[in-house]
Amino acid sequence: MGRPPCCDKVGVKKGPWTPEEDIVLVSYIQQHGPGNWRAVPTNTGLLRCSKSCRLRWTNYLRPGIRRGNFTEHEEKMIIHLQALLGNRWAAIASYLPQRTDNDIKNYWNTHLKKKLGKGQGGKGEDSSETKSISKGQWERRLQTDIHTAKQALCEALSLDKPIFISNSNSNSNSVMESNLTLPQRVDSVPPTPTYASSTENIARLLQNWMKKSPNSSSSAVSSDSNTNFSAGLSSSPSEGAISTTFSASVEADHEVKFETQMPLSLLEKWLLDDAAAQGHEGDFMDMALGETADLF
DNA sequence: AATCAAGTCAACCGCATTTAG
DNA sequence: CCTAAATGCGGTTGACTTGAT
């Protein structure tokens, strides 16, 4: 038969996450790594469903996430990718490793859609494009995916000593679902991502939290059973970051599940073959949309 | 200062796909 | 192979914030 249910919906808490919950979650993931979300609520005592835990981690607590202030480059990237891939935010997000699909989606809906609407008289609408896809269109879309993946690979490989991470969880995406893991170029994420950046995220949240509700002091952070966070908490002048002693100590104890390299030989060969065939190096950002249109 | 509208974004919901028993 | 749970994804909602009146 099947498996036991992931979470019974009675007694499941909803709504915004508190810093305390964040800390519990990060602590748990620090120890066990992301994945097996079903076990998270039971093992941590969080009154959240597994989905909620996963979402919280992937969208806010995961290391290397940047929030707000989309750069012009990112903006252009999103616009291009949206034109290429449609509303496949996870796929788009995989090209912007510091951004989450949710973030990109929100940004698109709140900023870019409007912007494009103004600029080109509503051309930016995507719905008709991505819906009602015929079989042939699917094939072409797949081709486009492969094509764009190759472009991204070219770009990535052309850099000096790039650092790749292959997102082990949600950010792997349809583009690469054919067992090829697209290496993500990381521009300004720390070279060796640790959970410290998660704690920074939490610290930031804590700050906001304390701004909002002066009553909930940092003492609230102490309590929980299997976390020893409180000892490691300290304020830093820059971002009020949680002290790195935590991340350092934990890192020593547990393997950090981020690949920093990936075997590229096959990919390189594939790219080189393709590049030879195509004969262009293709700056992804400069790829004309007209080229895309041809594919569809 | 109060009220309302518009904008933003975190989180939820439901569906599709993948995976485990 | 079948069934059901787990997971991932995109659409949508609603609480909160900000700006205008």
From TrEMBL:
Keyword ATP-binding: no
Region listing for Disordered, in residue ranges: 115-138, 213-239
Keyword Secreted: no
GO cellular component: nucleus
UniProt-annotated location(s): Nucleus
PROSITE patterns linked: HTH_MYB (PS51294), MYB_LIKE (PS50090)
Residue ranges of every copy of the HTH myb-type domain listed in the record: 9-65, 66-116
Domain Myb-like, chain residue ranges per copy: 9-61, 62-112
One GO molecular-function entry: DNA binding
Top-rank lineage group of the source organism: Eukaryota
One Pfam family matching this protein: Myb_DNA-binding
Residue intervals passing through the bilayer: none
Keywords: DNA-binding, Nucleus, Repeat
Ranges annotated as biased composition (Low complexity): 213-230
Biological function: Transcription factor.
Name the UniProt record assigns to this protein: Myb-like DNA-binding domain
Source organism of the structure: Salvia divinorum
Phylogenetic lineage: Eukaryota, Viridiplantae, Streptophyta, Embryophyta, Tracheophyta
